[in-house]
């Protein structure tokens, strides 16, 4: 075994080796000016091929492009040493990395949530730049002396989901890779990175990768079938919220379409769990499509509006706008004063004028966002200042509309009193003979004849509703008799039911391999070699009807197992899929896991 030789580099003094990988060594250097420690990654001279050189250059370019992000390791410069070896000069993160820490200690739930949001921010930033990492794992997450993570090793990263011209010795890391990548169905995409990130967070909670068996065979050839067929296991930790268990299982689903579509979506879900647990809120640090830092609040938004900017440029004169105008004149001159807006009459419970002015853009500090909304930092430095859209002023129970729509709008109160051009002295007295002058008295009760006239209409509506209710009940009861007792989710639905009969499920609690597990066997009398068995699992029969967690077995397979928490109750159903046909779901089978 050859000893790693550090190269002589201008302006850098070698200190000590830091580590060695399959095709590169990492050394600690001290930069002379300005004086600071840096990490230098150098390609090994042995086996240095043009393909590896090209890959290394791509890694340098990728990391340099993303280096401004606070949770991606910064690259200072790159070059080629005098002996012909390419190198990268990067920010130095002292040991241990996350893999080393996970072997030595168990992370708290709060720290895992915070780390997950930080890393999801970094991964989302890479994805928006068109870069798929493809090798997210604990060993590729360094930790600064201030405790913040730094994602590194973009060596097999690619653009647009295509892995081009890489040498055979460059591959993914099996324990954290999704099944579609391991078995050649995909070269990796955003959902593949989401899977690997979830597997990384799972390891921080448990201390091993998700499909490792303590004391068992954990070689590559033993892990791959488990990753393909076994459902994502529970962490087995009582302090992990149920919502976090569900999210990790969803993010490691066998079907990529069942996972969160983006790293940003995963980050928002982690934020929601963080808020439900009353932990300190962690900011999601991303840019919008125009390259500006921004704040995202509320539920996930569409791809056309992923990030709400801190401030919006003032629209051109006469241009329509869909939001209240921003306070202050536009750049380049003072704005013309807006046309006067009619002032609505005061109504009990409406906001005072002073507060209305604040709502329309005064310098007063806006209130913090509600707990139900995620928070994204407005600056890449991780600052916590939150910019909010100005609240809408409410008058008379109707929100003020922006722009010209607010002008000349008549205001009506709930009491039915008119605020139009008629006088304010009340209703005119009846004229001679009991006649009233023209114009409605707003407080005059309706004649009873009108109510009687509505009675046939009301009875007709009630009758129609009863008929509809009976039809719905009949359809539901018929479907119940046909045996389709479990609703199916939209994702993963292979097509219209067309196979007769239904499979049967047998569940046996065991404790093989040191962990409580449920051994599951599915039988179907007409099973063919290419049929696929789809299982669905939940905590009870009600959760199965609400969707549960489902996954397919490999074609022709009818047996699998799920690692569960001691004493946990699990219910299972199954169906058989053949092309675009499927059977009805089986009857549910529920068992309780062993406790010792």
Automatic annotation (TrEMBL):
Which of this chain's residues are annotated to bind ATP? 41
Which residues lie within the region annotated Disordered? 290-377, 394-447, 483-518
Here the segments flagged for biased composition (Pro residues) are 336-347
Q: Where is the composition biased (Basic and acidic residues)?
A: 437-447
Q: Which UniProt keywords apply?
A: ATP-binding, Kinase, Membrane, Nucleotide-binding, Serine/threonine-protein kinase, Transferase, Transmembrane, Transmembrane helix
CDD domains attached to this UniProt entry? STKc_PknB_like
Q: Provide the E.C. number(s) assigned to this enzyme.
A: 2.7.11.1
Residue ranges of the Protein kinase domain? 12-279
Locate the transmembrane regions by residue number. Answer: 454-477
**Which InterPro entries does the annotation name?**
Kinase-like_dom_sf, Prot_kinase_dom, Protein_kinase_ATP_BS, Ser/Thr_kinase_AS
Q: Name one Pfam family in it.
A: Pkinase
Single GO MF annotation? ATP binding
Gene3D superfamilies for the chain? Phosphorylase Kinase, domain 1, Transferase(Phosphotransferase) domain 1
Q: Which residue ranges have biased composition labelled Low complexity? A: 312-321, 408-428
Primary enzyme class:
transferase
PANTHER family per the record? Answer: MITOGEN-ACTIVATED PROTEIN KINASE KINASE KINASE 20-RELATED (PTHR43289), SERINE_THREONINE-PROTEIN KINASE NEKL-3 (PTHR43289:SF6)
Q: What is this protein called?
A: non-specific serine/threonine protein kinase
Protein's organism: Janibacter alkaliphilus
């Amino acid at each position: 075994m050859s000893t790693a030789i550090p190269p002589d580099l201008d302006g850098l003094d070698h200190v000590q080796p830091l580590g060695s990988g399959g095709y590169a060594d990492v050394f600690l250097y001290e930069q002379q000016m300005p004086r600071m420690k840096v990490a230098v990654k150098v390609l090994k001279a042995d086996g240095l091929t043009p393909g590896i050189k090209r890959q290394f250059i791509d890694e340098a370019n990728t990391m340099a492009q993303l280096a401004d992000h606070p949770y991606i390791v910064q690259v200072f410069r790159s070059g080629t040493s005098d002996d012909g070896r390419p190198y990268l000069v990067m920010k130095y993160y002292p040991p241990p990395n996350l893999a080393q820490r996970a072997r030595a200690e168990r992370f708290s739930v709060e720290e895992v949530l915070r780390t997950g949001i930080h890393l999801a921010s970094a991964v989302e930033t890479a994805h928006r730049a068109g870069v798929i990492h493809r090798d997210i794992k604990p060993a590729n997450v360094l930790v600064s002396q201030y405790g913040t993570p730094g994602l590194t090793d973009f060596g097999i990263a690619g653009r647009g989901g295509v892995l081009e011209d890489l040498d055979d010795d460059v591959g993914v890391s099996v324990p954290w890779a999704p099944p579609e990548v391991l078995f050649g169905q995909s070269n990796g995409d955003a959902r593949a990175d989401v899977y690997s990130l979830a597997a990384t967070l799972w390891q921080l909670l448990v201390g091993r990768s998700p499909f490792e068996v303590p004391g068992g065979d954990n070689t590559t050839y033993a892990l791959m079938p488990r990753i393909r067929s076994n459902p994502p296991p529970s962490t087995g930790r009582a302090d992990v919220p149920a919502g976090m268990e569900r999210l990790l299982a969803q993010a490691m689903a066998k079907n990529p379409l069942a996972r969160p579509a983006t790293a940003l979506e995963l980050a928002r879900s982690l934020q929601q769990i963080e808020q439900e647990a009353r932990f300190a809120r962690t900011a999601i640090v991303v840019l919008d499509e125009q390259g500006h830092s921004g704040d995202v609040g509320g539920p996930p938004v569409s791809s056309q509006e992923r990030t709400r900017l801190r401030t919006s440029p003032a629209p051109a004169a006469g241009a329509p706008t869909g939001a209240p105008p921003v306070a202050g004149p536009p750049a380049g001159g003072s704005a013309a004063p807006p046309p006067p807006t009619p002032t609505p009459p005061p109504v009990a419970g409406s906001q005072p004028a002073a507060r209305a002015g604040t709502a329309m853009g005064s310098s007063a500090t806006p209130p913090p966002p509600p707990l139900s909304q995620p928070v994204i930092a407005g600056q890449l430095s991780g600052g916590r200042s939150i910019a909010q859209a100005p609240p809408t002023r409410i008058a008379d129970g109707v929100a003020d509309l922006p722009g010209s729509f607010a002008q000349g709008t008549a205001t009506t109160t709930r009491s039915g009193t008119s605020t139009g051009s008629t006088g304010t002295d009340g209703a005119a007295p009846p004229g001679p003979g009991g006649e009233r002058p023209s114009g409605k008295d707003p407080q005059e009760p309706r004649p009873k004849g009108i109510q009687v006239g509505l009675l046939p209409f009301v009875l007709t509506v009630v009758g129609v509703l009863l008929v509809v209710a009976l039809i719905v009940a009949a359809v539901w009861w018929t479907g119940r008799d046909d045996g389709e007792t479990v609703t199916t989710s939209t994702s993963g639905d292979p097509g219209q039911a067309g196979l007769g009969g239904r499979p049967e499920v047998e569940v046996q609690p065991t404790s093989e391999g040191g962990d409580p597990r449920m051994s599951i066997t599915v039988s179907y009398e007409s099973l063919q070699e290419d049929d696929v068995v789809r299982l669905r699992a939940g905590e009870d029969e009600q959760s199965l009807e609400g969707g549960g967690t489902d996954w397919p077995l490999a074609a022709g397979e009818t047996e699998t197992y799920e690692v569960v928490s001691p004493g946990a109750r699990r219910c299972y159903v199954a169906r058989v899929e053949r092309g675009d046909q499927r059977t009805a779901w089986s009857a549910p089978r529920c068992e309780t896991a062993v406790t010792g």
